[in-house]
Amino acid sequence: MTNPSNALPEGASSFARIQAGMAKRRAAERRFKMLGRLAVSVGLLFLSVLLISIVSKGYTAFWQTQMRIDVVLAAEDIDPEGTRNAETLRKADYSSLIKQSMRDMFPEVSGRRDKFALYGLVSNGAAFDLRDKVMADPSLIGTKVSLWVPADDDVDMLMKGHIDRDAAEGDRRIKDNTLGWIDQLKAEDRLELRFNIDFFTKGDSRDPELAGIRGALMGTIFTLIVTLSLSFPLGVAAAVYLEEFAPKNRWTDLIEVNINNLAAVPSIVFGLLGLAVFINVFGLPRSAPLLGGLVLTLMTLPTIIIASRAALKSVPPSIRDAALGIGASPMQATLFHVIPLALPGMLTGTIIGMAQALGETAPLLMIGMVAFIADVPQGVFDPSTALPVQIYLWADSPERAYVERTSAAIMVLLGFLALMNLVAVLLRKRFERRW
Amino acid sequence: MTQTPILLVLLLALTSAAYYFGCKRAFRVADGKIRKLHSLPGYYGLYVALWAALPALLILCAWLLFQGSIITRMVVSSLPDAIQQLGPDRLNLVVNDIRNLVSGNIVSGQPDATMLAAADYYRSLLSVSRNLLFVVVIVVAGLSGWFGYSKIRMQHRARNGVESIINWLLVACSMVAILTTVGIVLSVLFESIRFFQAVPITEFLFGLEWSPQIALRADQAGSSGAFGAVPLFAGTLLITFIAMTVAVPIGLMSALYLAEYASARVRAVAKPLLEVLAGIPTVVYGFFAALTVAPFIRESGSFLGLDVASESALAAGLVMGMMIIPFVSSLSDDVINAVPQSLREGAYGMGATSSETIRRVIFPAALPGIVGAILLAVSRAIGETMIVVMAAGLASNLTANPLEAVTTVTVQIVTLLVGDQEFDSPKTLAAFALGLVLFLVTLALNFLALYIVRKYREQYD
Questions:
Q1: Mind listing the pLDDT tens digit for each residue in B282-296?
Q2: pTM, whole model, 2 decimals?
Q3: Which helix (H) or strand (E) is A170 found in, with range?
Q4: What is A214-431's CATH number?
Q5: What residue in A sits closest to B417 (Cα-Cα)?
Q6: ipTM of this predicted structure
């Protein structure tokens, strides 16, 4: 509706004037539409770049380089007195056995530094694997066993092509002689990429090749159990009260405004609350999933209350009227007729709230769930971390091998989130009702 | 702690028993004429069960919450005066040592006789408290259950009783939201007041230097302990500004396109996909910003001959903008869809093209809602933590150059509070003062957004 009429002679028909401006207006229309398309595609581009970068960095972490070593389990090294006592077996020096087997494979290596590099090809965890094997079956003592153990993270990175072989020796984490040994091991079929079970069954570790997400995953599960068992009843009860029973007065207005505001409070502030109130005043154990669950409960409560209220609102008044009409009390009408109909909506809201809690990191940092914890937690009082916090910790670690592990942990986290959202969508589809 | 579950199971069993006996007594009282009872028999059972369970549960929760601090206080008062005279931080260390001794963990240094005695005392108090809790809970459950039981008569209004108890429970649950707000305000306020006793509030709000390391020795270099928060506010605003320059145009244009142009099929695919961006955890964005975007920006910067910091504000802001896109777009989408169809049809009838209708009719009509959405997105960006913790630096530069490293309020809160803290140093307390500022600013933004939406909303019906 720019004014193109100036260009036309006085007295031209209005149709001609409109015609003259049409080309420009159509161009503007096309430009605007293009801009809109562009904005949507930039948004989608961001999403795909993000996902592709995570997946391309992380998919290799599901495989781990394993090395086959032949270890002579000489009785005099492990159990000189022949008692087969569990304590003796536990305390035997398995790492020197593994070093011996490495020396046997490469008899030509001499010198302290070279030997040290040679021992470094095998992960520190190999000795524990060997110990577990011997303790499970003491009859192996005295024989020569061949077993697959995890290789060091540098070897792993080389096998996966993350270390450039052609770089100058000084710029490489793996030196030329080590490279030679690795090539020889590969030629003897002693190095192999195998499915990385440890990643799913072990806790955190300072050695990337031994680090797994089990500990963090259990911590997250315990935290979410606490969150769910508190926030669902609390949220539904609060929503039922506000929607069905609360009188309209200043007090309930205040509660409503409060809930809406809490939904927009930055999550880190809930962490400050947890630190100052739950830890310093009530003395709850720091780093425990119980504490994390409490903090996340307060954080997800507004989401659940708002979703549950919407679900209650969508139940038509005729249901209530019918129940009241045949003599039910208001409480009976709500408990036995309205809530069952609103339940799918409430569950959907709760799942979305749980997904939010699953991805939340900042408040957990405040309450000490960031400690390095190698053990898998056994209950809600054990110190633990959570999956997103584990991602944060690994992302901060300097070793190259943690990058792929971080990405893999992110893939697991996103997988759980996708699953929860899928359940929410299916639930909505299955139980959605139009009144 | 292991006996709490046992206690809970026991309580559950008692409650079920109370239900059973309540029902049974209702039948007996009715003497076969159930229709003469005021309420259905189940309500009598529920009435007794609620009486048995609730007081005991209340006592159990309060006991568990306060047990730790009361025992600690008793142990501390039993310690020799010499130890009690120590400052609060040293005393805290001693208490920690005692707790570690009790739970059989490693302690710092060799425990001496007083410590061992204190640990023994602690342990004995703990076991006394546990046994006492057991007895008290069971006795209270039994007594209050009996009270409920004894009230059952033919004309006793059990349903009304149960319903009013449930009603009070519902009220209590809805109070949790208020309590949370009160808890947040009190916790940040108290610590902030302590902080402002050490550091004047004007220095905190207007000081230009931020270096929260406190000197341990008087002659230590470089640790002056300056608490001027202006560089943090400036850094937060810079990153928020970058994020909004990414998110507002993209979010708004995609909302307009999806609402006005896109076919139903495109909309059904693109809208949920864009909303996936909001569902991705922020720690993932932080990782992406630190490991993919920041190196990319640094390399393209050096390609153009620019000197880019490895933790540039640009990288953090850009990725934060990505995260915020769906907030802007879905909130604006709601507002745009709320503009009545008649306005569009009127504009088309006057011969306007679609883009003219959008720009001159729909956009002005939806503007208050869009401004509200943008303000909510700003509040989200200011409070965002993980992206900036992982991708923005710790260096408190007072700069407007997006290629340099800046730090933000949330980064400093995390840095000051992660790890071991002493609760009387201004360094730790500063985090709570920053938290107070953060809380107030986001609160103000939310109120402002709601106010604008309410005040300037056009009423079409």
A1: 999 999 999 899 999
A2: 0.87
A3: none
A4: 1.10.3720.10
A5: A366
A6: 0.89
